[in-house]
Structure formats: structure tokens, C-alpha cells
Amino acid sequence: MRTSNPFLSRWGGGRDTGRAAARADRPVGAAVGGRPANNPDYLTNPYARTDRTDRADRAGSTAVTMDDIVVRTATTLGTVVLTAVLAWLLLPVDEANLGRSYGLATGAALVAFVLAMIQSFRRTASPALILGYAAFEGVFLGVLSSTISTYLAPGVVVQAVLGTFAVSAGVLIAYRMRWIRVTQRFAGFVGAAATGFVLLLVADLLFSAFGAGDGLGFHSGGLGIVFGLVGVVLGAAFLALDFKQVEDAVAYGAPREEAWLAAFGLTTTLVWIYLEVLRVLSLFNSNN
């Protein structure tokens, strides 16, 4: 399976050739990785290979387990939370320190973005890059959350955290109950919707930066709330794709070191959901 999450898109990226070779020896309609090969609505799995070379390669490595993924995800998310709390405490957003805190938060966000992009284009996981991303992302989230809680909507951060947990739990339950079916069609729709969402967000920022007031209106008022809810739904869809990625990796014996990629993808998705929930709640409180 190749997920639509841009930060997990290269998971197993070097295995496509072998999978294609394995398919070449099969008749049309034969099952590959437990799924019909001629059905375009099924997601294929880069670990579902049956050739002898692949089995020999796996024999020398340890397969990933759910415990591996849980531990590394907890480590990555814990780094985000720890640095966010430290940033909240050590980088106050009062008038005397506002400029410095904003400057450090902006710099941290840019560094986190660069580290995330570097990792997303690597074929292998780098724990240093992933934890570095988590640390700098936490600094940005800490200052942003402190600012919103201080000046816009006191108490909204706790609500946003609870909302993120609620969305994540809901998606997990729906995925486990198979109410959400992650297919090729689902992944394509989510990817297209996310592309449009990001393009609209960029256009809104550009219009706002060049003197168009509220830009396209996506960061204020009722339209901003609707736009934020769309972002939450997209984050939930990406989370379902992440769950599918994790499930397939464990089922097909992905190398153990790639548990870090699962942690990375889950963390980026949860950060997305938190930011969109925070946006919706902040706008809702400010409108009231």
C-alpha cells in the first residue's frame, strides 16, 4: 500500500520493482498480497512480495511489531509535548517578550518544515531527523497555543487537545470496525482534496499578505470555521491512511527500523488535526 500521506509516501519506496516482478509471473486476476491484482480499487502493499530474494532479505532483518510502532510513536509525540510545554513556560507571550517569542516560534516552524521535507524524501528513516522535527514543531505549537490561550480564547488549548483525542479515537474505532474502508479510490480522493485545501490556504495567505484584508476569508468568521472543519475531516482521513499503513506493515513483515516512519506519519497527522481543531475552536469562541 502506498499512502496518500506525503510524509509516508516513500515508505517501502525501494520495493516497487520487486513487486512488479512478482506480479509479472502471475496471471491476470491472480491475488497479490491477498488482494485481486486486476481490481484498481484495492491498495497494494509494498511488503506483500513473495519472490525468493525478498524472503532471503527478510530473513536477515527483524520484522516490525505493533509494540515497536507504539513505542516510537510515543517517543515522537512525547518530544512534541515536552518541547511545547517548555516553550509555553520559557517563551512568554506578554508584551515585553512577544517579538522574541514570535521570532523563535517562526524559526522553529521553518526548521521543522525543512526537517520534515528532508525525511519525507529519504528512503530510510532517520530517528535524528524525526525527533528533531518533533522538537522544533513542539516549540512552534507551544508559542502558538500560549498566544491563542492568552489573547483570543482562554482555555481553548485543553479543548483542542481533547478534541484531537476524540477525533483520533473516533477514526480508530471506525477503522477497526471497518466503517472506513481504505481503498485506492479513498486514497485518491483524500489526496486530491488535500491538494485543493492547501492551495486555497496558500492563496488565502497570499491575498492577506498583499493587502487584501482578510484574504479569501478562510481564517476568520463562519467561512473560517467551515474551512477548519474541512481540515479536521481531511486530518481524520489521513489518520485512517496511517492506520492502514501500520496494519499492512505489521502484517507483511516490514523491517523494524521503519517503525520510525510510522511514528513520523502519525505525529504529523495528529499535529495537523490539533491545529485545525484549535483553529475551529478559536474562531468559534471569538465569534461568540
Tell me the helix content.
55-70%
The class by helix and strand makeup works out as mainly alpha
Number of distinct beta strands: 2
List low-pLDDT spans: 10-38
On the 0 to 100 scale, the average pLDDT is 80
Query: Order of helices and strands, N to C?
Result: HEEHHHHHHHH
> Terminal Cα separation, in Å?
44 Å
Radius of gyration: 21 Å
Give the percentage of residues in beta strands.
Answer: under 5%
Strand order of the main beta sheet, please?
1-2
Features:
single chain, 288 residues, mainly alpha, two-stranded antiparallel ribbon, globular
Question: In words, what does this structure look like?
Answer:
- The longest helix has 31 residues, at 221-251.
- The termini are far apart.
- This protein has helices at residues 16-24, 52-59, 66-90, 98-120, 127-152, 156-176, 184-209, 221-251, 259-287; strands spanning 31-32, 35-36.
- The protein is globular, with a radius of gyration of 21 Å.
- It has a two-stranded antiparallel sheet.
- The chain has 288 residues and is an all-alpha fold.
In short:
The chain is mainly α and about 290 residues long. The protein contains nine helices and two strands. The protein has helices at about 15-25, 50-60, 65-90, 100-120, 125-150, 155-175, 185-210, 220-250, 260-285, and strands spanning about 30, 35.
Topology:
Layout: H1 16-24, E1 31-32, E2 35-36, H2 52-59, H3 66-90, H4 98-120, H5 127-152, H6 156-176, H7 184-209, H8 221-251, H9 259-287
Antiparallel strand pairs: 1-2
